[in-house]
Design brief:
mainly alpha
Length: about 80
């Protein structure tokens, strides 16, 4: 059973510019490129890549929700 939790946060005005740190983005790109070239990653590399993808997805979702929230407040 899934649950929904509503959390209200104050986000910085420049939140939309927030990105995955360059070193993590570079590592994710390296892993995904290697997977494309070689066809597979080691089990630990797959876990690492999945964790980085999950983090990037979560940041994107948080930015989208923050943008929607600020649009609603400005109405």
């Amino acid at each position: 059973m899934s649950k929904t939790i509503l959390v209200e946060l104050k986000v910085p005005k420049d939140w939309g510019r927030f990105r995955l740190p360059k070193a993590l983005d570079d590592r994710l790109r390296d892993l995904l490129d290697r997977q494309d070239r070689e066809g597979r990653l080691s089990p630990s590399e797959r876990k690492e890549a999945q964790a980085l993808v999950d983090l990037a997805d979560m940041l994107s979702l948080m930015k989208l929700r923050a943008r929607r929230g600020s649009q609603r407040k400005s109405r």
